[in-house]
Design goal:
By secondary structure, the protein is of the alpha/beta class. It is built from 7 helices and 9 strands.
């Protein structure tokens, strides 16, 4: 069985009606004014990272064999998201313990140089990924992080449980307390699950790589 964990605030989730019937959707909603039907309400903190980590902590003993973690509008960063879900159902054994979902690989420095120039970061502040890495893992991290934009991925139960529950509790707490933690998580999700999920050969010496052409999205 595959579970789809959706981190929603106010997105239209009509697209959930078209996911494969073999997939069970669990929606975590942070919009108390207009919650999605049959969703689980959460406080509006920590963005999607908090929702994902809440699910792992709450369901650690009852996790699905495979979980897809996505935002309320997954198509911005994975425009063929529906196709990906169908492929997971048709051939689940082809997916490793962790798999990024998305079409753009990017690189950020440990002080968040990429975040500083992001159009949705008006104050131009960076990210202290060095301190974040130290808080979560108790060790020093690399100078650069390669990641897939969007903070969406697939994780297997076995891979999640390689980390003890107290690690996930700490990760959840950090998602609520560390400044801009969700953006730090976006850059480090593969490492959170104990792998390096980006094949640097795909970057071909570049900082950014578009794996598929970026095109204008049709309404879901």
């Amino acid at each position: 069985m595959i579970e789809l964990v959706v981190a929603r605030y106010a997105e239209d989730l009509a697209w959930l009606r078209n996911i494969p019937p073999q997939i069970r959707a669990t929606v975590y909603d942070k919009n108390p004014a207009a919650p999605h039907p049959d969703s689980i309400g959460l406080p509006n903190v920590g963005r999607e990272a908090h929702s994902y980590l809440h699910h792992i902590v709450a369901r650690y003993q009852t996790l699905a064999p495979m979980t897809v973690f996505c935002q309320g509008k997954p198509f911005d960063h994975a425009f063929d998201f529906r196709k990906t879900l169908r492929e997971l159902v048709q051939n689940p054994d082809s997916t490793p313990d962790f798999r990024w979902l998305g079409h753009i690989i990017d690189t950020d420095s440990s002080d968040g140089a990429l975040f500083k120039i992001w159009s949705k970061n008006p104050d131009g502040g960076g990210l202290d990924i060095t301190a974040f890495h130290r808080a979560l893992f108790g060790s020093e991290g690399p100078g650069e992080y390669q990641f897939y934009l969007g903070g969406q991925f697939v994780a297997r139960r076995e891979g999640i449980r390689r980390r003890p529950l107290d690690f996930w509790h700490r990760a959840l707490q950090i998602s609520m307390e560390f400044p801009d933690a969700a953006h730090c998580y976006e850059r480090t999700w593969d490492r959170v699950f104990g792998v390096v999920g980006v094949d640097v050969a795909l970057l071909n010496g570049q900082k950014t790589r578009y794996l598929k052409p970026v095109r204008k999205l049709a309404p879901p």
